[in-house]
Known about the structure:
This is Pentatricopeptide repeat-containing protein. The structure is a single chain. With 95 residues, the protein is mainly α. The protein is 74% helix and 0% strand. It has helices spanning 2-11, 18-31, 34-46, 55-68, 71-80, 86-94. The chain is globular and about 35 Å long. The mean pLDDT is 89.
Amino acid sequence: MAEKVFDLLDEMEIKPGSFTLAILFKACAELANDRAIKIGRKLLDEMPENYRNDVVVLNSAMYMLMKFGDIQSAERIFRSNKKKDIITYNAIIKG
Length: 95
């Protein structure tokens, strides 16, 4: 199912919103295959600046990066997050 979502994402011309980004990061984390890693990193690199303060998006991105084994990038997002909550800490620990 997630692979079909990625196919659709590749065809879309619009940028995903914060809710969609959070879901896509979670899907990438769960798959964690080469395609998911490539898509997840691309989404993170192209993420609009206004989502970089959204705790839900950041938590999902950290979880994804931890699942990819990219602890350094996940920690960088953790440190930059000004609105940490219990889910933020869980994303770092559980990922």
